[in-house]
Design a protein that fits this description.
Length: 231
């Protein structure tokens, strides 16, 4: 069976994508910081009959990243790495004039440094796969200037650039930075707690991720709302 590593998989988009892949027969290695929500998510996903390894921890911890790769090796390798875990930098979000530098460092560490560290460790397994793929979950804040989203957006813009370069340096892999668009997630609620406007559930954008896996377009940045390559 193909094997996927998904970070930030206890809820939201990570959990929805994990469920969809398990339904297709994928074995999974799931990560999140919250042990109990991750356990609940893994039990639900395992109902599809595939192997699911759930490892709570912080992707910014090199030891935890090594554990994720060891778990993938135990399942037979790694065909897909999804970097979905994210940190906002401040909760709720604030203007750059008030953004704590320690919060920005945390966002960069989780969203950029840890994502690259996981890719570096996973590359030997991904290169061995006939369909090795890296997906980094981006944001429209990486490409647009929204007030209060500067720190988070900067980290996602950096992640987009890493994904673009990785796609150039590893031409036999598929590397996609995917902007899922607005979703009703705990992350968004923490970012903008006063925004009560309705947003689509994360499960509604999962078909766009599955379409990428089915069609395997060129490495690049894509928007879940459109099959066309984004900027």
């Amino acid at each position: 069976m193909p094997v996927a590593i998904i970070t930030g998989a206890s809820k939201g988009l990570g959990r929805a994508l994990a469920g969809a892949l398990a339904a297709r027969g994928w074995d999974l290695v799931l990560d999140a910081r919250g042990a109990e929500p991750l356990k609940e998510a893994a039990e639900a996903v395992a109902g599809h009959g595939t192997h699911v390894t759930a490892l709570p921890g912080d992707v910014a911890d090199a030891g935890h990243r090594a554990e994720l790769l060891a778990a993938a090796r135990a399942l037979g390798g790694a065909d897909l790495l999804v970097s979905n875990a994210s940190a906002l930098g401040a909760e709720p979000l604030v203007r750059l004039a008030e953004l704590p530098l320690e919060g920005l460092r945390r966002a960069l560490e989780v969203n950029v440094v840890a994502a690259l560290g996981l890719v570096q460790e996973a590359l030997p397994l991904l290169r061995e796969s006939a369909a090795g793929t890296v997906i980094t979950v981006s944001s429209d804040a990486a490409a647009e200037a929204y007030g209060t989203w500067g720190g988070y957006g900067a980290s996602k813009a950096a992640l987009d650039q890493l994904a673009a370069v990785l796609g150039t340096e590893e031409p036999w892999l598929r590397v996609w930075a995917v902007d899922p668009g607005d979703m009703a997630t705990d992350l968004y609620a923490a970012a903008v707690p006063d925004d009560d406007d309705p947003r689509p559930a994360p499960a509604t954008v999962v078909p766009a991720f599955l379409r990428l896996l089915d069609e395997r377009p060129a490495s690049g940045r894509y928007a879940a709302a459109s099959p066309a390559q984004g900027r």
